[in-house]
Every structure is written in structure tokens, then in C-alpha cells.
């Protein structure tokens, strides 16, 4: 069926990426042998998969960190290894989450997104907002979304999902890491100087770097960088950068000096006393 659908779609659109996914019940291995377009379309097709911890409450909150650690890591690893072995083309974690705003749920968001980074996987969270879909199991239905019953943003989720990451890489990615508490970010990649476009990194300045950030590039002077718009940095090669060089970009929070810390504390005190 997937191959027939692929053929029909390609009659009118031969350029865009087609996502294909297995049956939800195929947990350990799918019945797919290749992407619907075959290897010739591997640059225009992507294997889509979902990851959910099986040990959760009625509200979707994880019951056991240990079980969810094993479950999440196993599912992502199995999907990655199968896609690599069968040469599916691209792949993406297109659904995970359905979580509340609780501490346990935030830990699950950190857990899955961290594993996804290890495998250099893009991801999308379920769900942005309640739309009366048939699959939502939590009660109230808004539990899974960014908004509560009163239409207020659930900021714990927003913060947990506002991770620093590379949107585009001018070369071959090797390693990407984001630590959600400290907001430390690292990207390792092998530069391809034939690529004229910059490496682009997204950061959430308000939530993760409120006092500014520090950027370190190794080797020194291999890249220059600019911030063309808020929350985005572009990194470009210099004339001395050699093709194939392994480059590391690190972004960390800028800490306040003692004077600014005191001023920030005093401002909060005054604001509180005026309430």
C-alpha cells in the first residue's frame, strides 16, 4: 500500500519529503524492508516513529524512572538500528509526550529528548493544544497540551521543550548535547567547506540564557559567528578552516558578577515589597 501511495503522490510531487511510519503495535521490529520509494528516494523520504513509556498513570505521568529509562532507550535504539540496517533514508521521532505539567512528566521529556540528541534525531511533541482528537486518553484532555483548562501556558513543559539545538549543519554531525538544568550545549561536527550555507544553532535566550551566553569554538578561529535574529546564531568558516576539520561549538550561560547579582536580588526584593 505504501508503495502505491508513493507512486501516486510522486506523479504530482517529486520533490518534497514523504513520511512513512509502521503499525503502532510493531514495537520491536517493523514489517518494512525499505522506504516506499526505494533507495532512489532516500533523500526525499523519512521513517516516522513514536515513543511512549508503557508504565504511566491515567494522567500519563511515568510511574518508574527505571522502567521509562529502559523503555525509551530501547525503543529509540531499535528504531534507529532498523532504519540504518534497512536504509530507510531519513528518520524522525514524530510523536512522544502526552504528558502533564508534573515533575515526573518533565523528567520524561528530558529523558526522551536527551536520548534523541544522542542519536541526532529530530522530534515533535504531542500535543500543542487540545483539538478534540479521538486518541487523547488523559483526563482532562488538556493534560497533554501546552495549555491548561483556563488557556494558560504550562511553563514547565515549555521550558523542558525549549532546548538548544542545531537547525542546520555545514558538514557531518558527530555529537549533540543539551543539559536542561545548566543549559550547557555542545555540537561536534566535521566541517565540509564546500557547503556555502552557515551552521545555524537555535537557543531560547529568555528561558535558558537570561543573562546572556558564552560561545566557545574549537579549534579557535575556525568559525566566526553572528546573531542575525534573536535566539539564532549563524556560524561560518574562516579562510584558515580546512575541509574535514572536527569542530566543537559550546554555548553556556553567562553568570552574573557579584554586583549584578546583588542588583538583581535587590530588584526582586523591592518588587516583592511593593505587592
Automatic annotation (TrEMBL):
It holds the Pfam family Glyco_hydro_5_C. Keywords: Glycosidase, Hydrolase. SUPFAM superfamilies: (Trans)glycosidases (SSF51445). Belongs to the glycosyl hydrolase 5 (cellulase A) family. Signal peptide: none annotated. Residues 163-251 form the Glycoside hydrolase family 5 C-terminal domain. This is Glycoside hydrolase family 5 C-terminal domain-containing protein. GO terms for molecular function: hydrolase activity, hydrolyzing O-glycosyl compounds. One of its GO terms (biological process) is carbohydrate derivative catabolic process.
Amino acid at each position: 500500500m505504501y508503495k502505491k501511495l508513493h507512486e501516486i503522490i510522486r506523479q504530482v510531487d517529486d520533490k518534497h519529503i514523504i513520511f512513512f511510519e509502521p503499525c503502532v503495535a510493531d514495537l520491536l521490529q517493523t514489517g518494512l524492508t525499505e522506504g516506499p520509494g526505494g533507495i532512489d528516494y532516500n533523500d526525499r523520504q523519512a521513517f516516522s516513529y513514536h515513543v511512549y513509556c508503557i508504565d504511566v498513570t491515567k494522567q500519563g505521568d511515568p510511574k518508574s524512572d527505571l522502567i521509562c529509562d529502559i523503555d525509551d532507550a530501547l525503543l529509540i535504539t531499535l528504531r534507529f538500528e532498523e532504519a540504518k540496517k534497512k536504509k530507510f533514508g531519513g528518520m524522525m521521532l514524530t510523536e512522544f509526550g502526552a504528558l502533564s505539567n508534573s515533575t515526573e512528566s518533565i523528567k520524561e521529556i528530558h529523558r526522551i529528548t536527551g536520548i534523541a540528541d544522542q542519536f541526532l534525531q529530530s522530534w515533535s511533541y504531542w500535543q500543542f493544544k487540545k483539538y478534540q482528537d479521538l486518541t487523547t486518553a488523559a483526563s482532562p484532555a488538556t493534560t497533554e497540551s501546552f495549555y491548561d483548562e483556563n488557556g494558560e501556558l504550562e511553563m514547565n513543559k515549555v521550558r523542558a521543550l525549549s532546548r538548544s539545538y542545531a537547525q542546520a549543519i555545514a558538514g557531518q554531525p558527530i555529537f549533540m548535547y543539551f543539559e536542561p538544568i545548566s543549559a550547557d550545549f555542545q555540537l561536534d561536527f566535521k566541517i565540509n567547506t564546500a557547503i556555502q550555507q552557515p551552521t545555524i544553532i537555535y537557543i531560547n535566550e529568555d528561558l535558558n540564557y537570561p543573562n546572556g551566553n558564552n560561545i566557545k569554538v574549537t579549534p579557535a578561529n575556525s568559525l566566526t559567528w553572528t546573531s542575525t535574529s534573536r535566539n539564532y546564531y549563524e556560524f561560518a568558516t574562516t579562510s584558515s578552516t580546512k575541509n574535514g576539520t572536527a569542530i566543537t561549538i559550546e554555548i553556556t550561560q553567562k553568570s552574573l558578577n557579584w554586583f549584578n547579582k546583588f542588583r538583581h536580588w535587590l530588584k526582586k526584593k523591592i518588587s516583592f515589597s511593593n505587592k
